[in-house]
Design a protein that fits this description.
With 240 residues, this protein is mainly α. It has helices spanning 2-25, 41-46, 53-80, 84-97, 101-121, 126-135, 145-155, 160-181, 187-208, 221-228. Helix 3 (53-80) packs across helix 9. The longest helix is centred in the first third of the chain and has 28 residues, at 53-80.
């Protein structure tokens, strides 16, 4: 009985420590370069696809649906099986799936930064560093963001439901942050907007979660097309 209590207390402490790592993965202070990307919002504004707060809300809803249908399967699959072989396989599949060059480069840039930061920050999980070291320069991995995020989530003990919700959250957070810097909405308005869209994000996450990569698909191809125009903008604030 006493031994069971000691083991239970030790497990509880480990779980609490893991939660701090999981929260840090979502912290905007983590230098992964996410705020350098607008997910096509800057191009949408310059092409007059988004002209005000109402259009912005619609844009974010479509972006979240596209993220859920196309990207969440990769987050889910790597979280459930965070091994080197599975991660590399899913990274190659996603690289072949993304046809938008702007979005593909943004995914690689953010994923590479996230893996580099995670390997240094979460030093108590040496497998992250070893997997990164084994993949750098191999030419077999592009370090796309979604598989990297799922891999790290799985290694640090985050369950698949939480990892998928977390990915949708950071997507919503980053695009609303971009909207603030593009003067579509003020800081307080951005906070209100994020709270208003949260139920939509939850509904879309529930709709698309726990799906295999074979089910990955585009639901808003127009957004993908608009983001592809980003490189042709005469002046731009964001990388994508």
């Amino acid at each position: 009985m006493e031994q069971d209590l000691v083991e239970s207390d030790g497990k509880s402490k480990r779980n609490c420590t893991l939660q701090w790592s999981q929260w840090q993965l979502l912290d905007s202070i983590l230098p992964t370069g996410g705020f350098a990307h607008s997910f096509g919002l800057e191009a949408a504004i310059q092409t007059r696809f988004v002209t005000g707060p109402d259009d912005l809300k619609t844009f974010i809803s479509h972006l979240l649906e596209n993220t859920g249908s196309l990207i969440l399967p990769f987050v889910y699959s790597t979280t459930m099986n965070p091994t080197l072989e599975n991660w590399q396989r899913l990274d190659r599949i996603l690289d072949a799936t993304l046809t938008n060059e702007v979005g593909r480069k943004a995914s690689v840039s953010q994923g590479s930064s996230l893996m580099r930061v995670a390997a240094s920050v979460f030093a108590e999980f040496p497998s992250l560093k070893s997997m990164r070291d084994a993949s750098i320069g191999s030419g077999t991995v592009s370090f796309h963001h979604a598989p990297v995020f799922g891999l790290i989530s799985g290694v640090i003990g985050m369950d698949s439901g939480s990892s998928q919700r977390a990915y949708m959250f950071i997507t919503m957070r980053d695009v609303i942050s971009a909207a603030t810097r593009l003067n579509l909405v003020g800081p307080l308005g951005a906070a209100v907007l994020q709270h208003q869209i949260a139920p939509v994000a939850e509904a879309l996450t529930t709709k698309w979660m726990d799906r295999p990569v074979e089910d990955a698909c585009q639901t808003a191809p127009l957004l993908d097309t608009i983001q592809g125009c980003h490189g042709y903008l005469f002046s731009r604030l964001f990388c994508s």
